[in-house]
Amino acid sequence: MDIHFYKYQGTGNDFVIVDNRDGAYSGITTEQVAHLCDRRFGIGADGFMMLENREGYDFAMKYYNSDGREGSMCGNGGRCLTAFARQMGIDGAELKFIAVDGDHEASFRENGWVNLKMQDVDWVEKGNMYFYLNTGSPHFVKFVTDVQEVDVYQQGREIRYNERFAAEGTNVNFVQELDNGIFVRTYERGVEDETYSCGTGVTASALTASPAEPGDYAIPVETLGGHLEIRFSRTGERNFSNIWLCGPATLVFEGNINI
């Protein structure tokens, strides 16, 4: 299979993207996706996405984890695919697309940032020193004193594969509160390692880090790959709406590969 691909990144969360609106790549296999995402023998990426058509929407998003299996919602991937859609000639100040978790809206800023509207959250499990919630993908959030001292691979893997989460998996976020915002490091299922950034993960972390009082909030977020911002309304103790994941989405390069 000959593939014309594009490589995008959003705060270091990187993706191989193809334009599949004509169905040319619909037959791609799990093994082929895993090969494309392999950092030694392929292009190298945290995930693989296809831009597709869907009636009633500007486009549809199909996302695969780097292990080749179709994944749940990827926030940074959604922002990168929105930037790619614009590059492919899908114009508009605001775009509407559908992903595995439902409808999304996206808009653009003059500084090159892409704003992505996430699904509302109406359930948060609060445990002893942790939170657990779904922001399009499941996330375990643990607050720590010094996030740079955490062995994210080892500790994240222990939680992701513990008795509760082993079957379906969970992403694991370690969060340090800063004077202005939070610093987040994430172990991602499907990648099975730490990534430089995780959009649904920083969203989950910002929601749980917000003040308990209802109101509108903007939480600055630092990741290993750069700066993001989460804007949302807190409407109750465990209810959040109008959630926006905001940050850069950048074309790295494009090319051709035969697999």
Question: Topology, please?
Answer:
Layout lengths: L1 E9 L2 E7 L10 H8 L9 E6 L6 E7 L9 H13 L6 E6 L2 E7 L4 E5 L6 E4 L2 E5 L3 E6 L8 H9 L10 E8 L2 E8 L4 E3 L3 H11 L5 E9 L2 E11 L2 E10 L1 E9 L1
Function: Catalyzes the stereoinversion of LL-2,6-diaminopimelate (L,L-DAP) to meso-diaminopimelate (meso-DAP), a precursor of L-lysine and an essential component of the bacterial peptidoglycan.
Catalytic activity: (2S,6S)-2,6-diaminopimelate = meso-2,6-diaminopimelate
Pfam family, one: DAP_epimerase
Question: Keywords for this structure?
Answer:
259 residues; alpha+beta; Diaminopimelate Epimerase, Chain A, domain 1; 2 domains; 17-stranded mixed sheet; 4 helices; globular; EC 5.1.1.7
Polypeptide structure, described:
The chain is of the alpha+beta class and 259 residues long. The protein has two domains: 2-118 and 249-258, Diaminopimelate Epimerase, Chain A, domain 1 (Roll), CATH 3.10.310; 124-244, Diaminopimelate Epimerase, Chain A, domain 1 (Roll), CATH 3.10.310.10. The protein has four helices and 17 strands. It has a 17-stranded mixed sheet that branches. A hairpin with a 6-residue loop joins β3 (47-52) and β4 (59-65). The longest helix is centred in the N-terminal third of the chain and has 13 residues, at 75-87. The protein starts with a strand and ends with a strand. The mean pLDDT is 97.
